[in-house]
Amino acid sequence: MSTAASAETARKAKKHTRYLIPFRIWPYLFLTPFLALYVSFQIYPILYSFTTSFMSWDGMGKKTFVGLQNYVTIFTKDPFFWKSIGNTMLIMLMSTPIVIVFGLLLATFLFQLTKGRSFFQTINFLPYITTPVAIGLLFGILFDWSSGSVNALLLKLGMVQEGINFLGEPLSARIIVAVIIIWKYTGYHMAIYLAGISAISPDLYEAAKVDGSSPAHTFLKITIPLLAPITMFLILTDLIGGLQMFDEPRLLFSANAAAVGGPERSVLTAIWYYFDVTFAGFRFGYGSAVAFTLFLIIFVFTVISYLFLGRRERE
Questions:
Q1: What is the arithmetic mean of pLDDT over 158-170?
Q2: Rg of the chain (C-alpha set)
Q3: Residue 309: per-residue pLDDT
Q4: Count of CB atoms situated within 10 Å of the CB of 251
């Protein structure tokens, strides 16, 4: 009986497994459309662009294999690429500290509010979700040399004798791009800091108040140290995002098609340079090499950020 029972059990298990196999493949069938689209529109273009970076190609004619020549040119003979990297770093250096400080101060102020917090949060966050086209038009109108609102105000107040060419000088052009970044991203930093402050235990503030700590002392000794991981996260993501900056300077100077990169290419960013080389100069092979060089730079900063943040969390 035991042998017969074992055989019957094995037969039922085999039958059950035979019916179960079709159910096991259903998840893969449901994933197939997404995977097919992802491979077609994400993985394949990346691989195609990578292979193109070893070619000389104008987008229409025959491709010519040039090996590493495009990369050699970028690293040894192309001053504009490294100028674009330097411009990006300089603009981020001008804007990131201010964005961090303003975001933290705004978050601290709003956290203390009992009424109207949601309203002020929304008002400060609106620039972050404003479309880049609108931002470019807005700041172009504000700082235009002949009819800009800022020049009109300065002339009316008697602070200047003639309009200032804000968009025609390298330093002022960089400052205006930095102002755009500050105006746009302060609300985002505020929201991140506000979430971080909300996660701090109220008991710490109560204990500090009992010990006679002033608000400024509490802010310096409790709030800022506990928000240090968030601060480092924002700084590193700002740096990585800054290397991908394109919309702000490109749209601000789009009125003058000849001014690629602004005055003396002072606001030429890496992505703008890639766009100009590839789609204006029809150097698709070289443009692909620029894109992958920028990818390597961003990848290095990303790895550094993950390692640094991981060490901070372990500490």
A1: 85
A2: 28
A3: 67
A4: 20
**What does the domain layout of the chain look like in residue ranges?**
2-42, 71-314
Residue scoring higher pLDDT (16 or 260):
260
Q: Average pLDDT in the 116-139 region?
A: 86
Q: Which residue has the tokens 């002339």?
A: 155
Q: Which helix (H) or strand (E) holds 65?
A: strand 64-65
Q: What is the pLDDT of residue 257?
A: 47
Rounded to a whole number of angstroms, the distance between the first and last alpha carbons of the chain is 65
Torsions phi, psi for 285 (to 5 deg)? -65, -50
The stretch 251-258 carries a mean pLDDT of 65
- Residue ranges of alpha helices (H) inside 143-201 are 149-156, 170-198
pTM value? 0.82
pLDDT at 312 over 70: no
The b/e string for 265-283 (b: 16+ C-beta within 10 A; e otherwise) is bbbbbbbbbbbbbbeeeeb
DSSP E strands, the chain: 55-56, 64-65
**Phi and psi at residue 55, to the nearest 5°:** -120, 165
**55 secondary structure, DSSP code:** E
In angstroms, the CA 188 to CA 177 distance is: 17
Q: Dig out the tokens for 225 from the structure.
A: 């140290």
Q: Across the chain, what does the average pLDDT equal?
A: 85
> Which CATH homologous superfamily contains domain 71-314?
MetI-like (1.10.3720.10)
Here the tokens at position 72 are 């050699």
Residues with Cβ within 8 Å of 226's Cβ and at least 6 positions away in sequence, in order, are 196, 200, 204
Residue type, 70: N
